[in-house]
Amino acid sequence: MFSRIASVAGAAAIVGGAMLGITSPANAETVPGCGSHSPIGTTAHITSGGVTIGSVKQFAACGKNWAYTYVWEGFRSSHSNWEVCVSVATGSSAPYSLEGLKCISNKADNWSSGTNTLNVCTHAVGNIKWGSNHPTARTSVRC
């Protein structure tokens, strides 16, 4: 009887943990000078040759929009030189205007400047450049 109760309790704990994973909010990042905030819209993934090498997120924090790009460890450990760029793009269809664009070399992550674009449609755009490669990804448009 005890082992049956333990089995049921164990299964409940696993299901409960899985449910928490499904319903928990997206991880918060520390927006520069703004504290911890959760991303808005979808997270986009930068891929090269079918392998995910980075992620792009958009944030609304402290009265501004921010874009964030993270270069995944697998890429960083196999490359010695790259540039990661990120910006907030305005507009709901092309051509888009890039706002707050920032590029930095050989860093794991990069934030755009905060942009005064909360009153227009935006999405985050990020890319990772090395050699002649420059795969790009963008989040969903948020209006």
DSSP strand count: 10
Mean pLDDT: 86
Q: How is the main sheet built?
A: 4 strands, antiparallel
How do the strands line up in the largest sheet? 3-4-5-8
Helix content: 10-25%
The percent range for strand residues is over 45%
List segments where confidence is low: pLDDT < 50 over at least 5 consecutive residues.
1-25
Specify Rg, calculated over alpha carbons.
Answer: 19 Å
Salient structural properties:
2 helices, 143 residues, alpha+beta
Spell out the blueprint of helices and strands.
Blueprint: H1 2-23, E1 29-31, E2 35-37, E3 40-48, E4 51-61, E5 64-71, H2 73-78, E6 83-90, E7 97-105, E8 109-111, E9 122-129, E10 136-138
Antiparallel strand pairs: 1-2, 3-4, 4-5, 5-8, 6-7, 6-9, 9-10
Q: What does this protein structure show overall?
A:
By secondary structure, the protein is an alpha+beta fold. The protein has one domain (28-138). Helices cover 20% and strands 45% of the residues. The protein has two helices and ten strands. It has helices at 2-23, 73-78; strands spanning 29-31, 35-37, 40-48, 51-61, 64-71, 83-90, 97-105, 109-111, 122-129, 136-138. Strands 3-4-5-8 form a four-stranded antiparallel β-sheet. Strands 7-6-9-10 form a four-stranded antiparallel β-sheet, with no helix packed on it. It has a two-stranded antiparallel ribbon with strand order 1-2. A hairpin with a 2-residue loop joins strand 4 (51-61) and strand 5 (64-71). The model is unreliable at 1-25 (pLDDT under 50).
